[in-house]
Amino acid sequence: MNAIVRPTHHTQPSARRPTGLRLAPFVLAAALALPTSASALTVLQVSLPQLVDTSTYVLHGKVVASRVLDKRAKGLAVFTETTLAVKEVYKGDRKLVGKTFSWEMIGGSTKDGLTWSVPGMPTFGVGEEVVVLLEKHARGFTITGAPQGKFSIFRDKKNIARVRRRLGDVHFMKREPKSGRIVSAPHAVKPVLLTPPSKERTLMSLRAQIKGIVASQLARKAAKAKAATQIAVPVARSPVGKRRP
After folding, report:
1. Closest CA to 51 of 122, 149, 119, 154
2. Each residue of 201-239: pLDDT tens digit?
3. CA angle 128, 47, 193 (to 5 degrees)
4. What's the farthest any 2 CA atoms get from each other in the chain?
5. pLDDT tens for residues 172-201?
6. Range name among 113-122, 142-151, 188-197 with the lowest pLDDT average
7. What is the per-residue pLDDT across 67-107, written as a single tens digit (0 to 9) for each?
8. Which structural domain range is residue 77 located in?
9. Into how many domains does the chain fold?
10. How confident is the model at residue 21 (pLDDT cuts 50, 70, 90)?
């Protein structure tokens, strides 16, 4: 994962927040991190089934390209476009995805030495193998649930593909089941260096879980659609004969 390098020089940023900032619906609050400001990211902690349900695509592949898109002249922010060589589609239409798939996320270093970033949002490096959950919005696609929507893949000593999520620099919130209130949630993330690689879950198990979630969700949607189309047929009444005079 590439680290974001702070600029050696910059101009004083405007107080006006740039338009075009689009984060996932599970991101409750975010401050755009400019070189002169502190920032924080607050994210609603959700389950994998919720993330999958919100996502248009769930893809497994390798990052093959990354480029910064400076859209300040259009009144927008600075974005980084990531391109993935798709190995498998866990959710979504394979024909619509294609051999490669790209999405944009806010952040990146511009030619004039200014770095834009949102702490806690995932970054991607060329050559990195990942599973990503992507949701559609007006301008394209973005990662679902901020860092919750990225799984990094690595191989252990036995060459078994395993996955892990890095969820640092994020303040998690959760919704209480009974009251519905949003309250602070424990981070509950073990430091990467203290977690034995052999204990990380395998890519195969993650794949099976996501495929199972997708199948269950499709079955529920099909059942609801079928129920909605079932129209009660009115009982035909026998014609009433005319009374003879």
Report:
1. 149
2. 999 999 999 999 999 999 998 998 888 887 655 555 656
3. 45
4. 107
5. 888 888 888 888 877 655 444 445 666 789
6. 188-197
7. 999 999 898 889 999 999 999 999 999 999 999 999 999 88
8. 27-226
9. 1
10. very low
Structural domain includes residue 62 = yes
**Dihedral angle sign, alpha carbons of residues 76, 82, 86, 87:** negative
> Both tokens of residue 159?
């060459």
CATH number of the structural domain spanning residue 60: 2.40.50.120
Cβ proximity of 126 and 65 under 8 Å? yes
CB-count burial class (<10 Å; 0-12, 13-18, 19+) for 198: exposed
Query: Is the residue at 183 inside a domain?
Result: yes
Q: How far is CA 204 from CA 99, 131, 141, 163, 198, in A?
A: 21, 11, 25, 9, 14
User: Residue 45 domain-assigned?
Assistant: yes
Let me know if residue 125 belongs to a domain: yes
Distance between start and end Cα atoms, the chain = 95
Question: Nearest 5°: phi and psi at 11?
Answer: -95, 155
**Rg value, the chain, Cα:** 24
